[in-house]
């Protein structure tokens, strides 16, 4: 499912074309099987198959609820190991879990959730079975303007593009009814509207992104063996730029270093003098969630591995290199007009909200009361109580009165949408607004909500996040770990890092595959084939 024009994914396209969908294509109902016992279960529809949605569906009791998952992808991705798949340390299948393997008691509907009618308790879904789901990170460009006999001026062209009608949906539109709705659509990569990021950068949010990055890196090394290539071009192409100094960017830089140092250096020894890995971050410090001593340890590790870290550096533009080599030119604010060449740009600079969430917080929930879902002003997420029920606030949008009084706000205070729950990256818990947008938080939220519904009592105990610690791999079998109880660095932290992610793998199959691939990579080297 998931965001926008200056950002990421095809759900953004679905959201943009929503207003025309009804006129373009008819709808049909989504029917489900009747229980042979004749007992009607409550229908729980889960939007999303990420950490929150998948974990919730696994935990919810199928004997008490009819589980329906709506997602544009038919699998769950174990995202903490994506960087390992992007360099061949692990194979892609070791990080995937099929949604349909949750059991025969789960109904799966592959498509994009475009809208929710809260009064009718119906979700509008655009089917998406035929789409290329290799990556849902980047929003496609807007459709071209319709042809005309006279070429418009630049001002007219801009106007035409901005007002062009949305694209026609690719799949039929389905109405999916629900008794309870769990919104777990996640968030998407933030581009900040920087020129060229959407078109030319590589994100690392899905398995398709990891595949493209892996193939691109291997292709660059093969391309640079050409005797016809100049040293200057070779040096530019073998510069690997990573934008973002958070855990994803740092771990990918570390995994890329291991790939080059352990494997590619033996195959392409003549290219090693040209290789450079650079991490750019706008903040004065990488890994801001770690204490300064651990961040300094990471900086020291990268310095010993010849990985350059440029803090307080802002990327202003990415464009294709005009020399036709297939590389890119980065404009860095601190370098003035000078540009930096790179063979690939991996972008990991934070999250932005899903366009479905952006749409839902603008909808009037009750026309008579003039209420809407409460939006967090900082993140744009939906504010929930400590049982993950969506909170309501006086509506202030085109469909409601703008002059909401203090009395109306007070009357709406504390009102909840009892049959709509929001978990994961798109939720903001009112009593714990600073929770990080991590897999650990999302999975704990999902487990709490599912267990509460299984008990039939959400009011028993409020949600409280239990911080199990934060870990980041730094390359060379070294890592850092931070928790309230202790701090670890080096090899011991690396052992803990691998053990934790192995035990957190969802299925027995992947608990077997992950250590097998780790052993194969250690014994025989990473897979560097391109196919």
UniProtKB/TrEMBL annotation:
<dbReference type="Pfam" id="PF07992">
    <property type="entry name" value="Pyr_redox_2"/>
</dbReference>
<dbReference type="GO" id="GO:0003954">
    <property type="term" value="F:NADH dehydrogenase activity"/>
</dbReference>
<comment type="similarity">
    <text>Belongs to the NADH dehydrogenase family.</text>
</comment>
<keyword id="KW-0274">FAD</keyword>
<keyword id="KW-0285">Flavoprotein</keyword>
<protein>
    <recommendedName>
        <fullName>NADH dehydrogenase</fullName>
    </recommendedName>
</protein>
<feature type="region of interest" description="Disordered">
    <location>
        <begin position="132"/>
        <end position="172"/>
    </location>
</feature>
<dbReference type="InterPro" id="IPR036188">
    <property type="entry name" value="FAD/NAD-bd_sf"/>
</dbReference>
<dbReference type="InterPro" id="IPR054585">
    <property type="entry name" value="NDH2-like_C"/>
</dbReference>
<keyword id="KW-0560">Oxidoreductase</keyword>
<dbReference type="InterPro" id="IPR045024">
    <property type="entry name" value="NDH-2"/>
</dbReference>
<feature type="domain" description="FAD/NAD(P)-binding">
    <location>
        <begin position="43"/>
        <end position="394"/>
    </location>
</feature>
<keyword id="KW-0520">NAD</keyword>
<dbReference type="Pfam" id="PF22366">
    <property type="entry name" value="NDH2_C"/>
</dbReference>
<dbReference type="GO" id="GO:0005739">
    <property type="term" value="C:mitochondrion"/>
</dbReference>
<feature type="domain" description="External alternative NADH-ubiquinone oxidoreductase-like C-terminal">
    <location>
        <begin position="468"/>
        <end position="527"/>
    </location>
</feature>
<dbReference type="InterPro" id="IPR023753">
    <property type="entry name" value="FAD/NAD-binding_dom"/>
</dbReference>
<feature type="compositionally biased region" description="Pro residues">
    <location>
        <begin position="139"/>
        <end position="149"/>
    </location>
</feature>
